[in-house]
Amino acid sequence: MSALIDYTQPDINGKFGKYGGKFVPETLITPLKELEETYFQLINDKSFNEELDRLNKEYSGRPTPLTFADGLTKYYNKAKIYLKREDLCHTGAHKINNALGQILLAKKLGKKRIIAETGAGQHGVATATVCAKFGLKCFVYMGEVDIERQSLNVFRMKLLGAEVIPVSSGSRTLKDATNEAIRDWVTNISDTHYIIGSVVGPHPYPMLVRNFQSIIGLEAKEQIQKAEGRFPDYIVACVGGGSNAIGIFYPFINSGVKLIGVEAAGLGITTNKHCATLTLGREGIFQGMKTYLLQNDEGQVSEVHSISAGLDYPGVGPEHSFLKDEIIADFYSVTDDEAIKATELLSRKEGIIPALESAHAIAYLEYLMPKTSNDEIVIVNVSGRGDKDLNTIKNSLGY
Amino acid sequence: MSFISEYISEKNKNNEKVLSVFLTAGFPEIKNFSELAINILNAGADMLEIGFPFSDPLADGPVIQHSSLAALNNGINLNNVFQYIKEIRRKTDKPLIMMGYANPVLSFGINNFVKQAKESGANGLIIPDVPIEEYDNFFDKSFDGLDIILLITPTTSNKRIKLIDEKSNGFVYCVSVSGTTGITNQNMNGTIQFLQNTYSSVEKNRMLVGFGISNENDARNFAPFCDGVIVGSAIIKSLINDNSDYDKTLELIKKLKGAVRKN
Ligand SMILES: Cc1ncc(COP(=O)(O)O)c(C=O)c1O
User: Fold this and answer.
1) B110 touches chain A (CB under 8 A)
2) A307: helix, strand or coil
3) Between chain B's N and C termini, which has fewer beta carbons within 10 Å?
4) What is the pLDDT of residues B187-218, one digit of tens each?
5) What does residue B63 show for φ and ψ, rounded to 5 degrees?
């Protein structure tokens, strides 16, 4: 437990080093302050923590297992590979961890209307789910491109009683859905809570989403201790906005574990069709935060690409920008094709069909495993399951 | 003393409120934009806010999103905007204010931006996504000759109004309704009450009101509770629907100015 003693990000202004902050229109400052105050009240409140624990356990199915991947381990014949199984969470991805925490916050704030943005649809589904459970109205912004490629999740949201609002501006993906959600929030702040889906946006969101997601890492820590009597040597997670990654990284920061984030290289980082923000971006101010950003020479945000809707985003959570600059974590990228191959590999070797986002983390094993030795341990965060992506995977594999 | 602030005070002395008009640089056309700006000033606008476009204008509604995107598609960048301001400055003594989001400014380099803005003849700068929390970090100093103008909204507490008034120069920009640009006013009484309260709390600066002003009636209603009004989306909308000499838009400017002239 000494691990976190010398890591105290963010500061009281919501800064992770020079990143983060609150770059928002004045209208949002007061609701963000309210949110922050209420959050700090609640996390010190025993009944809130008990309720969240209970929901995580009885509703979401936590703790999720840490599965020893013997098939995959044999395949690489190097370090032992364990999988943290967020794919087994209710609704099929880690997104529910944050949605549950935030719906309790919204209730405490007395908000009647919930809005969210979604890319892959997993955060939209998680939000629609908790709104159904708690009887709040739910509106989910989703880019038209994503509505097309994640159509099953669109139907799930509708079935859960949410309204899915198509976004036709810009690249019609996650970034544009986020813009629209922020515009909605500015307009309806009196009765609306915005459940943001990743560790992005203005303070306090990157902090509070991280804290709700850090249950992944806390569990993994206990589980690997139990299984192996020690911490792993490597932790690998995919990075879109970065919530599943920070969720598993955070409890391991400064404990000697190599933390590896994997971004989407799309068609390749030498093309302009990728979203490897930390690999190729530079400091910018975007959607309320200062962070690495894919942008042109004039500070206009780039159109990005990934086969995976949940990674298809030109920004990244500000804490990851900090972790990169401080070399607390390392960031790499893998292509669409590599992610598809990894999807097939995990399906064949472990009987687990990962979400295309998570497949990016699996794909990085091709690079990592040759460098490891048999007495080392790797944990990969399987952030979600692949049901939502079956059409895309089918089209790519062609069988 | 700020030039913008003096200019507004001077107008106010003659029992008239100022009309500030927002235009997106390079919209509707790259060519003749400076001419259009001058014509708008000649039709009765007292000052101009010249928007420099950003790909992700999250404080803007559909109309200004459209004009920003069109300007970007027209290839407009900050150098073009400085050029426009130079051209307009040659033909007017009225205040010229630049308005846009933080990222293009950060990318250009803040000190370089300020230098170019001043050299072109701009008098003020509004960056809606840099609130007072981020102000000192973003600007790292104040700039003689370029006023940084801050915003107050219906969610701003009285205590914050004081802080913003303290920090802002040129004027304070009072956003009449919570929302994005182009929003229409649903609750005139509530808005008037908010303006009244804010107007009496703002001491250091002149106060201009923007957002929710779509016609001369709105302008007339708001005029008694501020030192001037700002019209943006209504002008852009008019430009979109106008013919190539923009007669109807210039007519609208005349009417808006007429509405705030005598109070
Ligand atoms: C399964 C899964 N993993 C990862 C992500 C990416 O988000 P983050 O980087 O915040 O974990 C998503 C986003 O939709 C997702 O659905």
Assistant:
1) no
2) coil
3) N
4) 999 999 999 999 999 999 999 999 999 999 99
5) -65, -50
